[in-house]
Amino acid sequence: MKGKILVTGGAGYIGSHTVVELQNAGYSVVIIDDLSNSTADSIDGIERITGIRPVFQKLDCNDLEGLRKLFTAHPDIKGIIHFAASKAVGESVQKPLLYYRNNLNSLINLLDLMPQFGVKNIVFSSSCTVYGEPDVNPIDETAPVKPAESPYGNTKQINEEIIKDFVRSGADIKSIILRYFNPIGAHPSTEIGELPNGVPQNLVPYITQTAIGVREQMSVFGDDYNTPDGSCIRDFINVVDLAKAHVIAIDRMLENKSEEKVEIFNLGTGRGVSVLELINVFEKVSGVKLNYKIVGRREGDIEKIWAEPKHANIVLGWTAKENIENTMDSAWKWQLKLREKGIM
């Protein structure tokens, strides 16, 4: 085994896919998750894919003493991948205090404990939302961080500053900050995928749930943006491609290849796809006509953003490989698997 990695939010969507890739790469994994937007069933899925059952503890990262006990029980943790956070742009506008309390305190608690337990490496799950509405696309890591369009985006900005300030203070840690664009799809095994609790806050599960009849109709927020078809444009990245970048980041820190104590990378495909384009791709691969309607713009939404991923391509040796058709097909197959199992 390469070493033990703590994955916060590891029962969730991106977390579970990353645990699979970590275990496939030879790491042992400890997952903590409060299951507020995930299910422990994903642990079974991870085991079915890899043949290894990760250690799992239901724990909220805001519980400082609970975290302290966890680190005491696992003194050999070599690094942390921190996913655990509330993550919906729209909900954050409605519930800002929930987002600030959850997303900031969870990171602060981890950073507080890392030096006490000799943990020196943390990968932070950030977001392209830190760029706000970009002046130009594609956008690279040198672009300015702009005032956030939502409390969710602001928590990502603040957390990045917290990490930088902590390192600047002399803390003996390294961090790689990964700014995701828009993760979608599911593991090709259909053993794990995106399964939000309640009404989906993300686009693709809303598409697939509408297509299979769980939701009556889907809303497209705005068709009057300055884009070719009037709908917002995003950079949609396959979740397995995204997960693999985290393994590379952990390898990089543990092998002392990091050039700085804090490094930042954009993770995207480099291609912008509109919401209406994505719906068309889904209809093509699934053969299902989607029931959707155009409604007004949603507060907090950015008009268009997609990545310039060359920095990650060159420095990390990472590239997004899956195309949008295969990715949407994997999301649909995951939805069909959920129906087959009687889950949704």
From TrEMBL:
Report the catalytic activity: UDP-alpha-D-glucose = UDP-alpha-D-galactose
Keyword NAD appears in the UniProt entry:
yes
Q: Which cofactor does it need?
A: NAD(+)
Task: Provide the top EC class.
Answer: isomerase
Q: Where does the NAD(P)-binding domain start and stop, copy by copy?
A: 6-328
Q: Which CDD domains match?
A: UDP_G4E_1_SDR_e
What EC number(s) does this enzyme carry?
5.1.3.2
What metabolic or biological pathway is this protein involved in? Carbohydrate metabolism; galactose metabolism
Q: Which InterPro entries match?
A: NAD(P)-bd_dom, NAD(P)-bd_dom_sf, UDP_G4E
Coiled-coil regions listed: none
Q: Which GO terms describe its molecular function?
A: UDP-glucose 4-epimerase activity
Its keywords, alphabetically, are: Carbohydrate metabolism, Isomerase, NAD
Quaternary assembly: Homodimer.
Family membership: Belongs to the NAD(P)-dependent epimerase/dehydratase family.
Name of protein: UDP-glucose 4-epimerase
State the organism of origin.
Answer: Dysgonomonas termitidis
